[in-house]
Amino acid sequence: MATSDATDGTPAVIDGLDEVVGLLAGKRVAVLSGAGLSTDSGIPDYRGEGRRVRKPMTFQEFRADPAKRQRYWAGSHLGWRTFAAARPNAGHKALAALEASGVVSGVITQNVDGLHLRAGSRRVVEIHGSMDRALCLTCGQVFARADLARTIDGLNPWIDEPGSVLLQPDGDVEITEVDRFVVPDCSVCGGMLKPDVVFFGEFVPTEKFSESVSIVADADALLVVGSSLTVNSGVRLVDHAARRKHPVVIVNRGDTRSDRRAAVKVDAGTTETLVALAARLAL
Q1: Which one is the CATH code of 52-85+130-197: 3.90.105.10, 3.30.1600.10, 3.40.50.300, 3.30.1160.10?
Q2: Of the residues 77, 92, 116, 128, which is catalytic?
């Protein structure tokens, strides 16, 4: 049992930390991160306890239905403001410090918020893409999301009118006037734009998954932080590590799909655990 400082200044007890330190000491560690790492940066974890169950929009729905595409872009545009305002938390910074010290060999993230790179991590695979880019499905042109957001604001000056947007307790938004929302087109060819993220119904790009497997293969252990491993790509990476006899450590509040694969499972918050881990390993 070990302790670290909690955000309110009182010691936080982290069961299993000594075992994790003993397991990872002297090893090169690959990291797989999920949404639980970014909650302390103000980005909601939509699979967390108490969250309202949602049916995600599939890529097929996005392409085929203009009304659903309109709803998606309206909510995504407002959600982008939360992403753009978010800052790396102490957990992101701890992983960057562990990489700088030679402990972490690379980070594979299921998150699309870009916070690992902003925290200073260098070898990062954004396996599900990043919200800071959009691309045209016709010509392949890539657009900076900040520039696109300004275009959307110009097309939809009403978006901040009182009553047009209802903010939900978990940070999601409901748009009450979706029919008014103007979806931007590609300024190069007039084609359909999509955030550069992997939708449900899409496959993770082969090159990204191959690079993720390489990070796992080149390491001596796998550390999973803040992921319930609901998405198959994460489970497959854990399986790759297990087949290579690499010890797997999972830090997550609640059960995951791969708990049986873990040499150590720590049921605790990611930020305080990573800060304590970095203090012990990044020497």
Answers
A1: 3.30.1600.10
A2: 128
